[in-house]
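Report of the visiting student (M.T.), summer placement. My assignment was to run the structure pipeline on a short list of targets and document each run. The first record concerns HAD-superfamily hydrolase, subfamily IIA, CECR5.
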Amino acid sequence: MAHGRVLSTCLAPCYRSLARAGVLRCRGAAPVADIALKTTRRRAFGSSSRELREKASSIEHDSTLVGENGTGSAINPAFADVAFAFDIDGVLYKGQEGIAGAREMLQKLRQQGLRYVFLTNGGGAHENAKVASLAKRIGLENPEYILKDRVILSHTPMRGWDEDVKNNGTVLVTASQPETARQLAREYGFKRAVTPADLLAANGHIYPFAHLRDSLHKEFSPLPDGKSAAAISDPYSRDIPSDALKIDQILVWNDPRDWSLDIQVIHDLLVSHRGYLGTLSAKNGDRTLANAGWQQDGQPDLWISNLDLVWKTEYPVNRFGTGAFLDALKGVWAAVTEGAAPLRYQALGKPSRHTYEYAHDRLLHYDADVPEAERTQGGKRLRPLRRVYMVGDNPESDIRGANEFAPRDGAQWESILVRTGVFQPTVAEPAPRYQPTVIVDDVVDAVVWALRNEGADVSREWLLSKH
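After the run finished, the structure tokens were exported:
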């Protein structure tokens, strides 16, 4: 199936109308006065209106604007068209440890009725599992109230992919935990999801390191519809047996566990004839064709869930992510093609526009705090946005994505970089490659800065308070 079709339908159902239209180190309580603006910062958004400032300036003294009972929130009129998107790893926690003040900050935003989502390049698990993990690490006792339906993983936009792809296609899923990813793919609606371990179990000659079949690759399932991974003996024959396995999409769900096996299998499919395992395309290397014939013979589309080269854990040196696997695959591909053709793939996650569009639409239709009577008939009420603040720790994904995203409704996305994660200034690279609107110490300072930019006379102490 052509990747253009998937591109036009890879957004959530609530986004289909827009698609059809054209479609590092935390120092806790650093004063906001110490926040460093980038040298050439553009004040693209200007000053807030007098009305907004008058409304917002009363926040610290007028608690009647919002609900405080933890079971519901009125929408603070000062922030009715403002929203936040938070990265998770390196912003709200590092490894197993929560960032100081993250819990209280989120509780205050929820209390004020502000819209927010969590936009992470993490994946490989159900969104609800990420909610539970986030709640545990930052110490939230009421995750349903604070986090429910707000977590967007790198692969979440796949939920809205075309039903024909899900019902009739066969997808190969690679991940750090392939069985978990397979179950999640099925929950997303993919009827036929196979893993590299399935292929290895069906044909041991696919991979020469047989001892790993009893350890790393011991979990597998039979191939769907009685298909075989050993039906083809002549890779150039076009007399394809009826039971030959055909892969329609390759989904790199999150950080693959066994790079060697996964790169081998992905390579085999990208040089195949129309995605039939065990075949070779006669077009490979034909310089009379586009891309020297590589990936020009109906091979499956390759989707990468995110492009993060590194991510932040408790370990002092950043750890490799899915982007590192992609770079390794690119290296092998360059060797196979002798540099004649770049690897063709599609990416989700930040900084992909697909992911930012999905998040923006989620915020537009964000109605957790809107009474049922105020929603439009037959669906969720669309609440216009004027500005969204992206708070992240990775300049290559969080900041770049927000800077480059220009939603069709004219809302502005502004980027805020925190020092608690991936970004660590060095002598060789004192400034991030992609410049944020502002750099702050941590996520609490980020929210204080954003609300002050909206004209609210707020403080760090107020944001961390219960009232």
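The first strand starts at residue 36 and ends at 37. The chain has two domains: 77-154+351-464, 169-347. I thank the supervising group for their guidance throughout the placement.
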